[in-house]
Give the backbone structure.
Amino acid sequence: MKPRNKMEPWMFAGPALVVYIFIVILPILWSLTYSFTDWNGVGRMNFVGLGNYIKLFDDKTLWIAFRNNIFFMITGTVFQLLMGLVMAILLSSIVKGSNLLRVIYFIPCIVSSMAICKIFEKLLSVQPKGVLAAVTDLLGLAPRAFLSEPDWALTFVTLIDGYKFCGLYMVIFYSAFMNVSQDVLESAYLDGCNWFQQLIYIKFPLIKNIFFMVLIILVNGCLKGFDVSYILTKGGPGNASELVSTYMYKTAFSMSKFGYGSTLGVFIMIESLTAVGIVRLIQKMTADREEQG
């Protein structure tokens, strides 16, 4: 049914569009403008053209952060995707107490990143002795400060960041499972499909689009991850857990290099769009293959 007034859709979409323009589009345009300048945030802007973008190729810290970002994205995406899926599967199989478990699983999502980081900081602390150090001491093993070790800092930052958001993807997958038609599942049961076969051959294919939506959110979110890494390690030790976002923040706000910091922001935008584009391409290829098959 067509709207009687062509302005009606715009009246509903207008407020959201205005907010989107002011908090997304305009900041992107400002960052693009600043990226062509050398500016300390106070004095005069000096136009440097593509100088900041040329500097990216010789910035060793950036490429270390970019490599860390790739690890953070892959590991964080796999961890959060699998944990969210497993928790959703368990919840959809539980009849009594599922509402309580849903709330418990979701609590880390609504707790502030600072609180989550401080909890894990105490758990992993060696001096004063934290829970993990006390357990290893009881086992006769030497305690290790994982957040201070270059080989382990990034891994723990990634897992802690993933722990915070697993509940969000659990809710999404759980809602998708609940929307699967019970008539289809009952028909499959009558045809001899067990629980595992229903999961693999019926539920997973029916929530395929939800799966790709979650994958896009995860990839995009991990590439822009900032708070957990900055709070726990400040990108250290050295540059072991430095992400492009934390490096951008330090460059812009600690070193007052707003021009180059904006260039790093543009770099994050480009890598996020590229990664999401790859996921969308894979989704399209999968859909085309199924249509042909």
